[in-house]
Amino acid sequence: MSNPAVLRKCRWLAPMAVASALLTSSLIGEPAPTLEDSPIRLSSNENAFGYTPKAKAEMIKALDGGSYYNRNNVGELVELCAKKEGVPESYILTTAGSGPLLMMTALAYAEPGVNVVTTEMGYTQLIRKFEERGGDVKFAPLSEDMGYDFKALGDAIDENTKIVYICNPNNPTGVLADSVELKKFVMSVPQDILVFVDEAYLELTNSSFAMATCAPLTKLRKNMMVTRTFSKGYGLAGFRIGYGIANPEVLDTIKPFYMGAPSYISAIAACEALKDTEHLAANVQKYKDVRKHVTDAFDEMGIEYAQPDGAFVYFHSGIDQQLLRDTMSENGILISGSRVSGAPEAKYAEWARVSIGTEPQMDEFLSILGGLMAKK
Known about the structure:
One of its GO terms (molecular function) is pyridoxal phosphate binding. This protein is an alpha/beta fold.
């Protein structure tokens, strides 16, 4: 004989089970930009594989708290970042992406008569802001493999140098610095100069992250900063969240230019991203697989490229970079151009950077590129 209490409980649980299933399925959507009829975006190093569904679930739960500042969520993120990096919480500063840290540093250190040393063909956000504040930029040449030439970087340092800026892996070339040579160089820089290592793409490297990161050096060298973003490997570009790792005295130097903490929703997303190590590992493997798919195709086409360790490949097509970009755009694909800095424009006029997307997206790109190469 049926138990009425059990039947009532089953009737109540059934709708809940359906609702739970619907919520779970809604969390596993295909990543897509909000722009309607968006072209294939292979120009800004966005993550086409998506962020962890666990972050989406936790953000949905927390939406009703939007009328409060909820600083506790940022506090939890600081705690998790410090644990990940093996540093005290006082060494962590969270920001809306890692870009604000680059700009804050430039604003804090730049003035007429001083300089920042970096490599040609590197990332320019910090150095552009440094120049805007009246400082100078000194470029060292690339090595033969389009990586860092640490002797040349060291030779460029003078009595007016305030910052040495290194993006590793580099952007736009994508080349990863030799970890031993990089750390040896960092520790050799005069102690009164800030060494800034931007590790935005380091999670995606083919090498060991633990061996490659300079974060542990922040405990050995006071004038040192390492930055990370959740935009690349973790797939949270639209949520704008990142952090810096540095001695508290360095952070105090740039804090007068602080641009504000990330939102509590972004902090929740970043916390879940850090916790879901399996999702990060899966994303990293997708990047590696698709990156190799692209470089294998380049090898077949006879296209030269810099050895990639980031979210993109920098390649020499032999086609004018603007013509290549325009042709891709006409076919619904956005790529980046040569992104020249510190070198003659003509030297890289036939180079371009393509971000890593899904394999079908890259196949569309390769198909159009192959057609253009056949016409050369």
